[in-house]
Amino acid sequence: MTIHAEAPPLKIDDTGTIRVGGTRVTLDSVLDHYLHSYAAEQLAEAFPSISLGDIHSVIGYCLRHKEEVDSYLRRREQEAAEVRRQIEARQGKQPTKAELLARCEKKFGAPFPDRGTATGS
Asked: Least CB-packed of 46, 50, 67, 75 within 10 Å?
């Protein structure tokens, strides 16, 4: 048997975003799910365009290169915060979901119905 070293299935696109395999799925998305206790098999279900083998490779790479990955994630968070600031500067701060629900309740006198559950009736 011959063992071949393989590079992790990570690609940096022209914006500096790291994507997994040949997909548009970002490393940030995979790691966010992983850090919320998704097992590799659950990640494969959540991101069907990524093979289970690639998911294991990415997790292993991130565990072995924690400092570099953490630095990348911090940079991405800073970039996202800057984009949010720019949008809010153009549009003004938008109300949160909680604020919108409170307005609805105040206007109609009853809590807004939960559309996330089906009652079957």
From this structure: 67
